[in-house]
Amino acid sequence: MERLQKVIANLGYTSRRKAEELIINGKVKVNGEVITELGTKVKLNDTIEVENTILDNNKNYEYYLLNKPREVISSVSDEHGRKTVVDLIDTNERIYPIGRLDYDTTGAIILTNDGTLANKLMHPSSKVEKKYIAKVSGLVTGYEIKRLRDGIIIDGKKTANAKVNLKKYDKKTDKSIVELIIHEGRNHQVRKMFEVIGHDVLKLKREKYANLDLTNLKPGEYRKLTNKEIAILYSLIKK
Ligand code: URA
Q1: What is the pLDDT along the chain (239 residues), one digit of tens a residue?
Q2: Which atom of ligand 1 is nearest to the CA of 185?
Q3: Catalytically annotated residues
Q4: What is the pTM of this model?
Q5: In order of start, what are the domains of the chain with their CATH numbers?
Q6: Closest CA to 185 of 160, 156, 203
Q7: Atom of ligand 1 nearest to the CA of 206
Q8: Ligand 1: distance of its center to the CA of 52 in Å?
Q9: How many CB atoms lie within 10 A of CB 201?
């Protein structure tokens, strides 16, 4: 038994908040009966109809790994008409990205219509590892690397321990390349961490999300996940 608004969201019809509005406005039927009470529990085999569309409980889920290019927004649509990650994928399913990368960040992002997996992976309690490579201004000192590793206060809260290593410092250009492995997903987290220690992030790339890296994917390219990769993602959210 699951709450009706959650099931509607998980089936990829819309967000949970919009699903709540639809329920309150009498747009949702369960087994042919209009339901307006939020939190009504439904069973797997109940027929759910939203705005006269019957939702398919047995739909085929799709899972993609995209190497997001720069200047693409990580959402389903954009009010300013900018290109979105969904625009880059050729599908008729209502897929959406799991989490976000900034407009100018490149790298690994998963898109799916599997709301259960997406919600669990995006939840703060999920400790999925993400590996980033940042090109930043100036020399990042050993002391600063330690601060990044041990946690730094951003938005009033300390970041969790991270694996951080200086990969390279180019004296001529006065720029550093730093690798970070973090398991939180706070807003603009990497940029803010560097801001606190006084370095501008000039380029940011997510090289790996959980078990998925960018092998054979140029920016803008994508591929379907294998069954094994999907199973590994599911095993991560069960912990
Ligand atoms: N941290 C950031 O600052 N930006 C991203 O896009 C991802 C992580």
Answers
A1: 889 998 888 776 788 899 999 999 999 999 899 999 998 999 877 889 999 888 876 667 899 999 999 999 999 988 899 999 999 999 999 899 999 999 999 999 999 998 888 988 988 788 899 999 999 999 999 999 999 999 999 999 999 999 999 999 999 999 999 999 999 989 999 999 999 999 999 999 999 999 999 999 999 999 999 988 988 998 888 65
A2: 8
A3: 102
A4: 0.79
A5: 2-54 (3.10.290.10), 63-124+214-237 (3.30.70.580), 129-209 (3.30.70.1560)
A6: 160
A7: 7
A8: 39
A9: 21
